[in-house]
Amino acid sequence: MAVRDIEEGVVDSNSTIPLKQHFVFVHGISGGSWCWYKICCIMENSGYKVSCIDLKSCGIDQSHADSILTFDDYNKPLIDFISDLPDNEKVILCMWQQLC
């Protein structure tokens, strides 16, 4: 399927309906996908595709924190999600971290 970018978003060459961008939100340390619930609701209601990822041992992920030995372990849910996307799908990756 041929896809081209236009000012309003992405349009499938077989369609006249603009598709909005796909945003992927990732929480910071000691957070979870729940951090993004307000912005996700607003964006989904505006027609955007939104995904919120729980990193290892955060949010609804049941992994024990002591089982995470590397950043690769911690980031695995995000890497798996991105790897499973169709080859032609682009996302806007949004991350946020607040340290006191």
TrEMBL record:
| Coiled-coil stretches noted in the UniProt entry, renumbered to this chain | none
Gene3D superfamilies hit by this protein: alpha/beta hydrolase
Which Gene Ontology terms describe the biological processes this protein takes part in? jasmonic acid metabolic process; salicylic acid metabolic process
Lineage, top-rank taxon, reads Eukaryota
What GO molecular function annotation could you give as one example from this UniProt entry? methyl salicylate esterase activity
Q: Which PANTHER family does the entry mention?
A: METHYLESTERASE 17, METHYLESTERASE FAMILY MEMBER
Q: What is this protein called?
A: Uncharacterized protein
Q: Which organism is it from?
A: Vicia faba (Broad bean)
Q: What is the lineage of its organism?
A: Eukaryota, Viridiplantae, Streptophyta, Embryophyta, Tracheophyta
